[in-house]
Automatic annotation (TrEMBL), chain A:
Its main location: membrane. Keywords: Cell inner membrane, Cell membrane, Membrane, Sugar transport, Transmembrane, Transmembrane helix, Transport. GO terms for cellular component: plasma membrane. PANTHER family: ABC TRANSPORTER PERMEASE PROTEIN YPHD-RELATED-RELATED, XYLOSE TRANSPORT SYSTEM PERMEASE PROTEIN XYLH. It is a multi-pass membrane protein. Part of the binding-protein-dependent transport system for D-xylose. Probably responsible for the translocation of the substrate across the membrane. This is Xylose transport system permease protein XylH. It is found in: Cell membrane. GO terms for molecular function: transmembrane transporter activity. The keyword rRNA-binding does not apply. The chain crosses the membrane at residues 31-50, 62-84, 113-136, 143-162, 182-200, 220-240, 255-274, 302-323, 338-356, 363-380, 386-404.
From TrEMBL, chain B:
It holds the Pfam family ABC_tran. Signal peptide: none annotated. PROSITE patterns: ABC_TRANSPORTER_2 (PS50893). The keyword ATP-binding applies. InterPro entries: AAA+_ATPase, ABC_carbohydrate_import_ATPase, ABC_transporter-like_ATP-bd, P-loop_NTPase. GO terms for molecular function: ATP binding; ATP hydrolysis activity. Residues 19-256 form the ABC transporter domain. This is ATP-binding cassette domain-containing protein. Keywords: ATP-binding, Nucleotide-binding. It comes from Nocardioides agri. CDD domains: ABC_Carb_Monos_I.
Amino acid sequence: MSATTQAPPEERASLGSIARGYLDKVRGGDVGSLPAVLGLIALVIVFSVLRPDTFTTELNFANLIGQSAAVMVLAMGLIFVLLLGEIDLSAGFTGGAAAAVLGVTLTNHDWPLVPALLAGILTGTLIGLFIGLLVARVGIPSFVVTLALFLALQGVMLWIIGEGGTIGLRSEFVLKLNNGSMPIWLGWLLTVLTVVGYAGTNLLKIRTRRAKGLSAEPMLLWAIKSGAFAILVVAFTAYLSRERSPNPALKSLKGVPNVVVIILALVVLLGYALSRTSWGKHVYATGGNAEAARRSGIAVPWVKISCFMTCSTIAALAGFLAASRTNSVSPNTGGSDTLLLAVGAAVIGGTSLFGGKGKITDAVIGGLVVAVIRNGIILLDQPSSVYYMVTGAVLLLAASVDAISRRRATASGRV
Amino acid sequence: MSVPAAEEAAPTTSGQPLLSLRGIQKSFGAVHVLRGVDLDVRPGHVTALVGDNGAGKSTLIKGIAGIHAFDEGEYHFEGKPVKVHGPRDANQLGIEVVYQDLALCDNLDVVDNMFLGRELGRSVRLDDNAMEQRARETLDGLSVRTLKSVRTHVSALSGGQRQTVAIARAVLWNSKVVILDEPTAALGVAQTEQVLLLVRRLADRGLGVVLISHNLNDVFEVADDIAVLYLGQLVAQVRKDDVTRGEVVELITTGSSEKRGTDTTNGVDR
């Protein structure tokens, strides 16, 4: 193993050595989101070439974000249970049930917005608690528990909504969640905050580490990263700030979609919880080696229960976004391929099905890949059959990358 | 500087045992595993615990670590009788065990593993820098030079490096007694040498070290005292210089040594 060679500790990190370190990591099997990012770029290029006048338009880009939002958010929730090496097959219908509660309380019972939203979210949390208790306390495999709930929750949804019914959503707030766009100025304000936040946090981290005599990445790398991030975010906002309505005289459409704020907030909040809190470390530890976690005094059952609760709570938010997109709640909200696309998004993004490896941003990158595939295939006038086969193949490909990189990691890890 | 309590302990209490067990009994159902074991662990000494498979080594250390309670017998720590009801109690006293499987999380880095379950900083805002500094100090204090970065994931480490991380984790908490279960069993020659050096260094810092090993080469290289378990009885605890390899083998396999005239009377001779 190369790392055993005598090396001076805390050597000054140079750009070259960082790049070499990253290459070593990738060769060792720790590919992270790299395949998904490359895949996303390739897909965008292919569809842009094949359908320049429909795929590469402002309108389609905004649509893409709206279409992928629910799957992305659901995938963020699923990452918590995937990190444990567990699965939640019922997460889609958990979102559906939460949306049904929201719809019934809002539309049928005329509840005010906030209690209705809380009731919906609490529905998700309670479902998560129930799954968590059955998995961590009773000891039923999560696959079975959530498969049972996958069926049971469909029944619950039918019962809440009423056989064959659909509940229309009239609340302005809920409808705007995943349909409306924010004013241009607000989009730019958000852009500035995001860029400053990203560059500032990293700068602060480098400076405190330098002050404490710890190795930190060079300022040049910080500048490159911050610059690239700024260019990307500014381009994103600029593109979405252009008029994209097919008929601007009738109805003007421009600005960053509202749902971007929700995704951004979740990425920051959940990313922080996973990387900077002791709970987050315990989640990774439990997924990596539950026995080691237990011996370190971590309450493993509680970690599992809390992860299932987190997953289902976020699934409730995903359910709201799905309902907002269709302006209604039906027994199929959160159903059909939603859950599998979300699992696919997480795995494509680089989260391991074996537990212990994954980040929140995986959900965003993977979610975009899934959405681009669907969007592009529809624009190519291909039938649903092709779409399902392609998506299935991509999911299998991602799972293979996961399994193979895991094998490589084991092979290169131990001498 | 990273293990201050141990350094203070070294000169003052070197005569008196840190940990001493008297007349320990333990049964699992009808199986009488430990039959009146006496054991002393002195600060600054490496006590090798040897014995054939099934002699009761694991049961003895699990009892010391608080994983299961002894049925009978006295458990003294730093001269005072103590009750150890769980791993937490043992940790509180300053007893740490490095198990054979190391109990490391491959998907976490060295720092995270060393502080797992005992992170520094507020639980909603961990102090990663402080943890990294202390991990580095502890490793430097043990003269570990083989780890390039403490932010390396454990999955990328060699067997010897993993063992080093597990040992460093054990001494991070001002521990006074470190019990090592077969630390060299899975290692190559060079790495075994590194780990044995590390074991020696722990004792030189004033810790009481218990080394469980099947390998008499390791035992004779690093140990000060040798304690031999035979069918649940401690048949001898002797200074390494007072015995030969052949006598130890005889003690392990038959429970007595003709030449030394010891029988199964728990003779602690020094």
